[in-house]
From TrEMBL:
Stretches assigned to coiled coil: none
GO-annotated molecular function: ATP binding; ATP hydrolysis activity; transmembrane transporter activity
Annotated source species: Gracilibacillus kekensis
SMART domains the record matches: AAA
InterPro entries, sorted: AAA+_ATPase, ABC_transporter-like_ATP-bd, ABC_transpr_LolD-like, CP_lyase_PhnL, P-loop_NTPase
Keyword Ribonucleoprotein among record annotations: no
Pfam families, per database record: ABC_tran
PROSITE patterns: ABC_TRANSPORTER_2 (PS50893)
Gene Ontology cellular component terms for the protein in this record: plasma membrane
Cytoplasm listed as a keyword: no
Every ABC transporter domain range: 4-240
UniProt name for this protein: Alpha-D-ribose 1-methylphosphonate 5-triphosphate synthase subunit PhnL
Secretion signal, residue range per the UniProt entry: none
Keywords annotated in UniProt: ATP-binding, Nucleotide-binding
């Protein structure tokens, strides 16, 4: 079953005061099957994040389709979905992990992870228990659970961000440099969670600079060059 199919997707950005249009992604095609992990590598500025942000509908493409197999809506073109539809999908089906943390002020670490589950309709006690399990997995110091993330280090913020996204066990998970500021031990914890989600059926699309982290993890890996997806890389894909 195809979970995500991108057809003729292209994106450019217009700098209005300079009357200039900058191409970001040339028209590309990409198909992701249910339960697959597709990785995308490439230099900074090659268009990797643009693809992920367009799937999440932070950006709108100038051309093409992004067809997603939703449990609630059936096959839906994310580039044409309504804001109400996208809000539902972000809450219930599509997760996004960025290397940056953007959260509500005066909301504690524990509350942020718990709220991710409550907005899906999870009972309060179950949400509390699952949130604490997630924080323990990513080895967040219990002394920080009731603190505000504004005071956290970069690595702590990233681990919290990953906990918020993965605790929901999304149908589709988008990973934008999820190990960017993590030490080796924390990267292992992220990898363990990705492997667990994949076993449970989550489909993943991720962009990375860390090729070593991807070793044996992805089913397909593509190299982004000059706004286009190049052929799959050898030696980093999952042979199982």
């Amino acid at each position: 079953m195809t979970m995500l199919e991108i057809k003729g997707f292209g994106k450019s950005f217009t700098i209005h005061h300079l009357h200039k249009t900058i191409p970001a992604v040339s028209p590309i095609d990409l198909k992701v099957e249910a339960g697959e992990f597709v990785g995308i590598v490439g230099k900074s500025g090659s268009g990797k994040s643009t693809i992920l942000k367009s799937i999440y509908r932070t950006y709108l493409p100038y051309t093409g389709e992004i067809n997603y197999s939703s449990a609630h809506f059936g096959t839906i073109d994310l580039s044409k979905a309504t804001e109400r539809q996208m809000l539902y999908l972000r809450k219930n089906e599509i997760g996004y992990v960025s290397q940056f943390l953007n959260v509500m002020p005066r909301t504690s670490c524990r509350q942020l992870v718990q709220n991710a589950l409550l907005e899906m309709g999870e009972p309060k006690e179950s949400a509390k228990h699952q949130a604490e399990e997630a924080l323990q997995h990513f080895e967040m110091d219990p002394a920080l659970w009731d603190s505000y993330p504004k005071t956290f280090s970069g690595g702590e913020k990233l681990r919290l961000n990953i906990a918020m996204a993965t605790v929901k066990k999304p149908k589709l998970l988008l990973l934008d440099e999820p190990t960017a500021s993590l030490d080796h031990h924390s990267k292992i914890k992220v990898r363990e969670m990705i492997e667990k989600l994949k076993r449970q059926g989550t489909t993943l699309v991720g962009i990375f600079h860390d090729i070593e982290f991807m070793e044996g993890l992805c089913d397909k890996v593509f190299d982004m060059k000059d706004g286009q997806l190049a052929s799959s890389l050898e030696g980093v894909v999952n042979e199982g």
